[in-house]
Amino acid sequence: MRFINNGPDVPDRLVQAHEDGKVVFFCGAGISFPAGLPGFNELTSKTFEGLGESPNSTENLAIHEKRFDVAFDLLERRIKNRLVVRKKIQTILTPKELSDPQTTATHRALLELAKGQSGNVRLITTNFDRIFQHVDSSLRSYVAPLLPIPKKSRWDGLVYLHGLLPEEEDPNALNNLILSSGDFGLAYLTERWASRFISELFRSYNVCFVGYSLGDPVLRYMLDALAADRLRGEESNEVFAFGSYENETEEETREEWKAKGVIAILYHDRDKHSLLHQTLNKWAEIYRDGITGRQAVIAREASSPPSPIKTDGHIDRVLWALMDPTGQSAKTFADLDPPPPLEWLEIFSDHRFSLVDLGKLGVANSSQNSAQLSYSLFDRPTSQTQSSPIALVSKSEINLVFTQLDPVMFHLARWIIRHLEKPAVLSWIIKSGCVLHPNFKDLILRVIDNPDRVFPQPLQTIWRLICDDLVVNTQDNSGMPLYDWADRFKLHGGT
Questions:
Q1: pTM score, two decimals?
Q2: Which residues, including other chains, have CB under 8 Å from residue 290's CB and lie 6 or more apart?
Q3: In sequence order, what are the residues at sequence separation of 6 or more whose Cβ sits closer than 8 angstroms to the Cβ of residue 454?
């Protein structure tokens, strides 16, 4: 779904996995751009410049090939003073001003998204800066190489996978930063503490990278560790990454991420990656508010007809909000005044959902459901009955399971009832087969028997025929074929 207009399309399964507590965000240098901090490329050039060093030919080649870790390794070897390089980095990565909330908004959003239902924080960064600490000074931190076991029961805090800049002068902390190719070699190849952490993490969670570029050396080491595990037959969950693209390069960029074993969530890189930051902030806002956040989406967006523009995410956001298994968001939808436009009926009837989407409605992914390949909000299994789909309207009673409608379907049926006088509802009933679920039928009868709801007598007669099961849109001989309606209608007196 798209959390903002023209923003990246976040896969529904990632949104659901996050709500289920199965996602860990992995934060790179890009999240600190609003605070004025550089990425790996700019950090390299600023370090050389700040030390008054001009890259030699070998160092220049490494920089040109975006092997910035190698360039740092060569620099430290050449000047034979590792500590002076690290101190210069500390200076460069110290933000000058963080009083503007916009400079730390993305950090706050990621901390919100990293909170589980129990309040535990599970977040990882390869950045050295202390901006997360500035946002939340009470945040528990794990600083490499002293890492937690990445399990829910043993992890509550932020992991600085590649080290953290000390608040005061501390040569040991600076020496422990994973910066040069030699540092990466120790962490991922020789001592392997970083690769072991990564391997266990990928097995336990869906990982989502934020703030990394395709050529980022940091990302390369982590994905190489993942690829090595996969070659050994180790199972791992899906890996996602927010990534930017320039004009006309979207599909090419997507394929490059795919080649690394990563599912790309792409956005245009205009305005200093503003689409990424806005998306994370909106996602965090909705997640923080829980059911109230979904209801806010309904109140804000469901009063308008579904947008025909695919890139604005309007339909996706409303559907996501409605698929709250408690039915509270659907109740908000049904109670809006005036009622949401009837154009939503086509969206809710569209078989746009597959088996994997049922989890959003609290329906277990049962093998018993696999006989049907696609579902709509009005024709699907419910959390109460998983043996076969349940529908508001069908072509035959055989296709209906006469159990209670789940809360989502019940409240959407209430919304339809508010439009019952409109011919489009009748057309939809006829098209869908005219056999009504008993709960839906009861709602219709209450309305047409209500003296406060004024129906034209002909329309009321037609609804009574349908509710009496005298008319069905089916190819068998049960019920009354549609072409016999006129005679029956005259018999009942259509005046």
A1: 0.83
A2: none
A3: none
